[in-house]
Amino acid sequence: xxxxxxxxxxxxxxxxxxxxxxxxxxxGYIYTTSAxxxxxxxxxxxxxxxxxxxxxxxxxxxxxxxDDPAYAKSYSEALSTIETFKExxxxxxxxLDLRIEELDKKQEDLATDSPxxxxxxQKREDLQRKQQDLLDYYHETVKPVEDRMNDPDNPPSKEELxxxxxxxxxxxxxxxxxxxxxxxxxxxxxxxxxxxxEIPTL
Length: 202
Description:
Blueprint: H1 5-23, E1 25-26, E2 29-30, H2 34-58, H3 61-66, H4 69-108, H5 115-149, H6 158-184
Antiparallel strand pairs: 1-2
C-alpha cells in the first residue's frame, strides 16, 4: 500500500525533532535538559565562590585586620597618639626656636668673651639639644610605626600597636608635661645691680 507523501514527511520531521532532542540540539539551538540545567546552576555557584575567594585575596592585609573591631580600635588609638605627639612636638620646637632667638638677641650686645655671653651660649646649646632629642625620639620611636601603619601589606600587629600607644603616651608626660613645668619654674639669672648711689641731703 502506497504511503501518503505528506504523512511520510510529517513522520520523518517528528523523528528528526526527536533525534535532535536526544542529541542536545534542535533547530540550531542547544537543547537544555533538566540535568544540564542543574549542572549549569552548580557551575554558577562554583564560579561565584571562586570570585568571592579572589576578592578576599585581593584585600590588603591591613583591610583584613581592620575588619576586627579590636584591631580597628587599637589602630585608631595609634593614629590619635601619633597626631597628638606631632602636634605637641611642633609646638615645642617652635617654643624652643623662640627662646633661642631671644638668647641670640641678648648676645648681640655682649662681648663674646664675657661670662654672660658664654652662659647664654651654653644655654643655647642646651635648647638645641632638646630640639634634637625630640626629633630623634620621633624618628626612632614614632615614625617607624607611623610608616608601617601606612603600609597596607605590612601593618603592625594589635600587640605592637598597644605597646606603642602605652609607651608614647607615657613618654609624652615626661617629654612635654614635666619638662614644660621645669622650663616654667626655671630660675631667671640674677640681675646685676649697679652700686647703690648715695642721695645727697638737701
